[in-house]
Amino acid sequence: MSTDTTGVAAPGTPPTEVAPTQVCASTPMGYGSMRRKEDARFIRGQGRYLDDIALPGMLHGAVLRSPFAHAKIVSIDTSAAEAHPKVKAVITGETLAGLGLAWMPTLSHDVQAVLATDKVRFQGQEVAFVVAEDRYSARDALALIEVDYEPLDAVIDARKALDEGAPVIRDDLDGRTDNHIFDWEAGDSAATDDVFANADVVASCDMLYPRVHPAPMETCGSIASMDPVTGKLTVYTTTQAPHAHRTIYALVAGLPEHKIQVISPDIGGGFGNKVGIYPGYVCAVVGTIVTGAPVKWVEDRSENLMATSFARDYHMHGEIASTKDGKLLGVRVKVLADHGAFNGTAQPSKMPAGLFHVFSGSYDMAAAHCAVTGVYTNKAPGGVAYACSFRITEAVYLIERLVDVLAHDQGWDPAELRMKNLLKPEQFPYTTALGWEYDSGDYPTTLQKALDIAGYAELRREQAAKRERGELMGIGIAFFTEAVGAGPRRTMDILGLGMADGAELRVHPTGKAVLRLSCMSQGQGHVTTFAQIVAEELGISPDDIEVVQGDTDQTPFGLGTYGSRSTPVSGAATAIVARKVRERAKIVAAAMLEVSPDDLEWEKGRFHVAGDPSASAAIADIAMAAHSDLELPEGVEGHLDATCVYNPPNLTYPCGAYICVVDVDKGTGQASVRRFIAVDDCGVRINPMIVEGQVHGGLADGVGMALMQLMAFDSDGNHLGASFMDYLLPTAMECPSWELGETVTPSPHHPIGAKGVGESATVGSPPAVVNAVLDAIGVRHADMPLTPAHVWRAMRGEPIRTDLAIG
Amino acid sequence: MQVPAQFDYERATGVAHAIALLTRYGPESRLVAGGHSLIPMMKLRIANPETLIDINDLDELKGISIASADGADALRIGAMVRHTELLESPLAVEHFPILVDAERVIADPVVRNRGTIGGSLCQADPSEDLSAAFTALHAVAVIEGADGRREVSAREFHTGPYQTVVGDAEILVEVRVPIRPGSGSAYEKVERRVGDWAVAAGGAALWLDADTITEVGIGLTAVGAEHFCAAQAEDYLRGGPVTEERFVEAGRIAAEHVRPTADQRGPEDYKRHLAGELTTRALRRAAARAQHGTEA
């Protein structure tokens, strides 16, 4: 490859300093790095989370869980538990079967046991539910329930799930004789094979994206309260998608939807862990129906780690083809997807591998193809969670690892190889070989900016000098394209519910406003960001806008917050509903100023008569007039409000260039991240400080996944990561001071040009860290997490299989 | 939320009172000091003591000082000394930097503010750091029961994982480390993440007369070393000169004699490798400190 065709920084270029973001001193009238409106509450410990809520007469539930990964339930004796003086009810699968609730539908065309009736299928599966006067008694009573299990052989290694004679996990399904869930393909297989047959160079690699867990600070929980007088069920619950939950409760329990109110209080982190409905939630509903009192169920940390939605668990075989001078031609991949004991992945229902098929990444590629096979194993259900943008984490990891493997094999510089193949700005909108229409981007500029901040050439020189001395440092690059903002109704739905979002905006007579949203913050700062969107459009201060979310009785329908969809979908709905209000305000202002609406011009916060700025009406005055006795033109309604349902025409495609610098201790295998440069392009930034906060969190996720987070299982199916002693989350000590940069290519189809960003860094950072560590030790590939032991083994050519117990 | 089973609670007012309470409530009672091992185990219902005897008011178990007896000085560390106190102790920094090295990598500040030296030793987790550090220092544990006090070498303190020589109605009251001239010490730990239990760790203490090693202690954590100790490597080094080659050889000998078990922190071969690597590194740093002071 010739270096002069790339934009890689010339030798001697010093690193570019990154200036820290300045927080606005006062509230901006629109976009800007204002402090988060919600934080005054949160940092004082005045948030109101699920477990802070206590209803009069409330009882407490606890779940008895299976100690076995796979076992037949011979009998369950609840008599001793029922005799406990503080126990009000003991619910088993048999109880639920009588109500038709022993099984519930999943989000992926399967069913899942609420409480096990026939068998347990993973360690930690729900077997019985105790309702007692306090949580201590509920826990005590669990020990009084006697379950007679007959252990069965378990399917733990996904690669053996389809073996002849493997135990059949889902014998509850009619005619089921194996553990196969689905086969799914994307791309043109023949065209891709053709490209590979004629390519000069092919690099292939087996890689595992291991099972990890979102592990939000707050675990999942629910309080169900059935009002016996009105027949109304109120469910306070940790949900990222309150409206979807309400509809599912109606469908699952057969309760009338208008008699169900789902309320999300403050949520202490979700990351996709709080999208689905868990058995504990259903049990709390049954508990309140059975006892007539409100029932609270809050899981503990081990329950959260063992039984709620995990993420990834993709066994991938990837291949990449290129010309001999480094022009990428095609990529193909076979995936074995471990979905656990029930197929409960949460993604657009027509897409069993989510959006994995964006795996051709950020490169101009002639052809691409994937074949994904989903299998059942004796592990908890899930797969789509942890800020993955519906499996784009796996896709980006695959392609960014393959590019590095190719560079490793050919002795090419990974920055040059990427720069040479990135899509060019003039190619947008760009339709990929897999059918996605990327909306906008200037990838070479984004990568160059990251290389400049890093001082890439200088780093390579330092690395070479260190190698001479026997010291190991590595530089890892990842360039990602995200696809977020699900999604267009014609292609994307969840259980038949199209992924459009509603928004309602009402300006009060005094010019203050209330915005009602269907999405639900779990810490993302919606109360601030969405108020800023309205402020930008209407000139009402963000401080004067109440943002209401999380209560199905108070907000319009929509599918919730996950997949980085809030700004792309609900943010667009907010901009549009604000513009609708502005159109109404224009008519009112015209009546006030006794001119034609066509004669008015908008400046932020007021309309004035064209050519006469002194003849104007401010938005607050317009609001008062709209509610007054002012005579409005025929057909114009009074008041100042609007509603909107936004159906996105396409996804938004944020991108980013990440560079990680690590040092590795040759004698111990310990890798430490010295620097991390992240240049993100998420289009227009509404609140840059919040964007940076989201990026910081995602980068820490990447360090965690790449170096330490892991849920492995032993051969009996025992979960080896069921507490924070074993499931390691990164701390500030493992994170460097992030060096952030930005480029801005607005989304052409989004009303304010914004793209989602909540998951970008989680998606983009793991391959950067892994590429850096492997670059340091000169090893072609080793799977995450690159713990000290694994790095040491990889250096010796004996990498560890990380999904199984270390033997 | 994880909640413990029901238990009774007593608050001891002195060592004699605590021993009386232990005697009264029997083997199903447990002392609680910092509580950072016992309380989580109770919440997980792995430990279900019927009675907790709180010894946080026992002032006689607190403090770090120099104790002199028979013309010999020793560093006295009370069993109720919090990890943070030892970490920040000028006496520890001056005499036994290995303790500061070890404390710096024990858990996190929140745990160190509450957890105690005695609690860590008596919990006797095989991955606990102080046992190896005190083994390297040839420390002595002082245990009190109804019949008075007795002293046990740190190397004889543990009888197995989570098991010590402290009887049902006894209390560890303090640890004594003899102070002798020419010493240098260091502790080296590999963990998967800050605050994690050791994958493996090694501590070394050297006493030098010019370039000759007059006495040596090597303690190993989490690698299945008998008595947390690398006795064969100590024997190899004792009486010989300080050289890099001999430290490497001592590491090799230490690695040869450990019996690590594989777990999610690492396979057996890696832990064995670390036993050697960390022994060598700790020796190197201990020697530098003996020769050039604790800044080394």
Observed structural traits:
heterodimer, A: 807 residues, alpha+beta, Aldehyde Oxidoreductase, domain 4, Aldehyde Oxidoreductase, domain 3, 7-stranded mixed β-sheet, 5-stranded mixed β-sheet, 18 helices, disordered N terminus, B: 296 residues, Uridine Diphospho-n-acetylenolpyruvylglucosamine Reductase, domain 2, Uridine Diphospho-n-acetylenolpyruvylglucosamine Reductase, domain 3, Enolase-like, domain 1, 3 domains, 5-stranded antiparallel β-sheet, 3-stranded parallel β-sheet, 36% helix
Describe this structure as you would to a colleague:
The complex is a heterodimer of chains A (807) and B (296). Chain A is of the alpha+beta class and 807 residues long. Chain A contains 18 helices and 34 strands. In chain A, the strands form ten sheets. In chain A, strands 3-7-1-14-11-12-13 form a seven-stranded mixed β-sheet, with helices on both faces. A five-stranded mixed β-sheet of chain A has the order 9-18-17-16-10. A four-stranded mixed β-sheet of chain A has the order 22-32-33-34, sandwiched between helices. In chain A, a hairpin with a 5-residue loop joins strand 16 (314-322) and strand 17. In chain A, helix 9 (392-410) runs parallel beside helix 17, helix 13 runs parallel beside helix 14 (566-593) and helix 16 (688-707) packs across helix 17. The longest helix of chain A has 28 residues, at 566-593. Chain A is globular and about 80 Å long. The two termini of chain A are 43 Å apart. Residues 1-7 of chain A have low confidence and may be disordered. Chain B is α+β, with helices and mostly antiparallel strands and 296 residues long. Chain B folds into three domains: 8-54, Uridine Diphospho-n-acetylenolpyruvylglucosamine Reductase, domain 2, CATH 3.30.43; 62-178, Uridine Diphospho-n-acetylenolpyruvylglucosamine Reductase, domain 3, CATH 3.30.465; 183-290, CO dehydrogenase flavoprotein, C-terminal domain (Enolase-like, domain 1). Helix content of chain B is 36%, strand content 26%. Chain B has twelve helices and 13 strands. Chain B has helices spanning 15-25, 38-43, 83-87, 90-95, 97-104, 109-114, 117-123, 129-136, 154-157, 231-237, 244-257, 268-292, and strands spanning 8-11, 29-32, 51-54, 64-69, 72-78, 140-145, 148-153, 158-160, 163-164, 171-178, 183-190, 200-209, 212-221. In chain B, a hairpin with a 2-residue loop joins strand 4 (64-69) and strand 5 (72-78). Chain B is globular, with a radius of gyration of 19 Å. The mean pLDDT of chain B is 96. Chain A binds chain B through residues 51, 135-136, 139-140, 143, 298, 300-302, 667-670, 707-708, 710, 712, 720-721, 723, 725-726, 728, 730-731, 733-734, 787-789, 792-793, 800, 805-807, and chain B through 1-3, 5-6, 44-45, 108, 190, 192-197, 199, 262-267, 270-271, 273-274, 277-278, 281.
